[in-house]
Amino acid sequence: MKETMGQIIRRLRKERNLTQEELAELLGVTFQAVSKWENDSGMPDISQVVPIAHVFDVSTDVLFGTIGTNDTEEVWKIVKEAQALLSCPLTAESLFQKYRAIKEGLKLYPNNTVLLMHCLETGIALSYPENEELYDAEHAADIYKECIRYANLVISYSKNISDVLRAHMIMAILHSAYGNFEKASFHADQFPYRADFNKHVMYAYYAHWKKDYERESKSCQYGFLHYLEGMLNINTKLAKSYMLQEKYNDAASTLETSLELIKCIFKDNEVMPPIHHREHGDLYALLAEIYLKIGDFDKALSYLEKMVDYDLNDYATIDSDTQTKSPLLNSIPHGLYRKRIDRHQNLITKLTDGRFEALTANKRYQKLVDLVNFI
Questions:
Q1: What is the value of pTM for the model shown?
Q2: Helix axes 140-157, 5-15, angle to 10 degrees
Q3: Are residues 343 and 265 in the same domain?
Q4: Same domain, yes or no: 268 and 308
Q5: pLDDT for 317-344, tens place per residue?
Q6: Within 10 A of 72 (CB to CB), how many other CB atoms are there?
Q7: d(Cα 73, Cα 70) in Å, to the nearest integer?
């Protein structure tokens, strides 16, 4: 059954955590007028429709109920056009353009979980203070507040548990970063205590009892890949935590263990996949930074040389036919070797980062910079 305008106004008001009195104050009307609209015993004057739409940040078509919340084809068109605004390598400016484009789409489809999730994913990249490459200091505080609403809508409307948990995750991270620890704790408490299961592990059980052992092994491998990615991410975060405590030897050992793990799993491959390129930074660059803080310039340069060698040589050999030989992961078609570096810092940006200023007069370092610039 089609919603009335009053029902739409009530829904939008509640989604934005506004009382009737607060909405009335924003519109310059009495709360009795808002109550009449929502009870369908009265209609807003035509002159009030645009201000109402403005307060809710939706199209007037949404208020009139002439546009839905789930037009799949139009929604994916909005996403595709927004994605086209991204630059390569990725910058905060181009990501903010995508964010604004998706927000415009939400004016037409305010509860669409695809658009809401895209806003959340771009929003956390732009508003998380430690995301040095993409943090948008000018808009971050406003984006954080908007993400709270988007997350609450995903949690309320999405039937996909992965989206719901991702929304809780983003809120736990952002609330913590902005000092709202009570709410951060609430969202963190929504997660299960067991971490050794996911969609792929569930399908492994399903395939096992169906006697589809090929699918079982493939599902197990995809599950293992997620654990590997998760382990590398948490190890990188652990190393950064050690750095903040000035426990540099522990930080170096943590990251070196991650690299050894990658080498062990892919020991039969000609080239290591680029999974050492983490959201928290290239592991080689992080190790170089750590060894500079320890005062070991030779090790710092060795890791920068490894970083340059990989990005210029090994990385260039990866193509659509590159496949892992490990029985732990040999069912994964191309995901492990997907080229991700171009969406993060390019090589010269990583190499000439201010962290390595102490090396600028070093001949080994100058040779690396000259080599990269020449290429």
A1: 0.74
A2: 120
A3: yes
A4: yes
A5: 888 788 888 999 998 876 788 766 454 5
A6: 11
A7: 9
